[in-house]
Structures are given as structure tokens and as C-alpha cells.
Amino acid sequence: MENEDCIFCKIINKQIPTEFLYEDDQLIVFKDINPLAPIHLLLVPKKHIRSINDLEDSDTTIVSDLIMTARDMAEKMSVNKSGYRLFFNVEKGGGQEVFHLHLHLIGGWE
Ligand code: AMP
Ligand code: ZN
Asked: Best of 98, 104, 105 to mutate for ligand 1, by most ligand atoms within 8 A of CB?
């Protein structure tokens, strides 16, 4: 399931110390190291899935958990009312640099 060369698997396994803003059985949430906005979170499933292209039919709960946790994190970070963006970069042409599925949450602009 995990990929030993994957930076996000290392974060999940606590081999790279990272503050988790949220964790449950399915996923973790932490701040992006190179933020594109005042608030920039990454929501990362614990299962190593390369990209959206590699989702299996049995992964639907992972996808719904990512979205529902994004909703909750937006409220926790107080950007739910002002607004925010959620996005997945898919493969190199889509801007993906870390090949372990993750949902970006950005917001907090004035
Ligand atoms: P993507 O381009 O969609 O693959 O996004 C990968 C994101 O991971 C980028 O926004 C990076 O800034 C972020 N990132 C890479 N390494 C780390 C790390 N160790 N801790 C937090 N964020 C990271
Ligand atoms: Zn991984």
C-alpha cells in the first residue's frame, strides 16, 4: 500500500516530522510547505494512490471523506464564509509534482 520513495507516505508514517491539523483512519491534513495563499492545506489519503487516474471503484469513501473533511477544515480555518478553492492537480501536465493523491484547499485572501 505505501510507497517507500513517496514523500507523502513518509509524512503519513511520521518519518518526516510534520504537524497534522487533522488525522483519522482515512486521511491526514497538513499545511503546504510552499503556500499559494494565506491558507493552503493538503488533504492526503493514507492509502498510496498515484493520482485521480488511479482511483478504483472501491475508493469512493476516500474521495467523499476528502471532500467532507475539506468542508470541515474550511470552517475550522474560518475561510468557509469568505470562500476558498479546492483542486486536484492530475499528472505532470496538470501540475502534479507529488504522485500521491492530495486535495489542495486554498483561501484566506483579503
Ligand atoms: P502538487 O503540485 O499538486 O503535486 O502539489 C504538491 C504540493 O506538496 C506542493 O504544493 C508542495 O509545496 C507541497 N509539498 C511538498 N513537500 C511538502 C512537505 N514536506 N510538506 C508540506 N507540503 C509539501
Ligand atoms: Zn505515497
From this structure: 98
Any idea where the domains of the chain sit in the sequence?
Answer: 1-17+79-110
Give mean pLDDT, residues 57-79: 98
pLDDT band at 3 (very low <50, low <70, confident <90, very high): confident
- Note the pLDDT of residue 1: 62
Which residues does the annotation mark as catalytic? 102
The residues placing their C-beta within 5 Å of ligand 2, an ion, are: 3, 6, 8-9, 48, 100
Residue type, 24: D
pTM summary value: 0.97
Beta strands in the chain (DSSP E): 22-23, 27-31, 39-45, 84-87, 103-107
86 lines ligand 1 (CB under 6 A): no
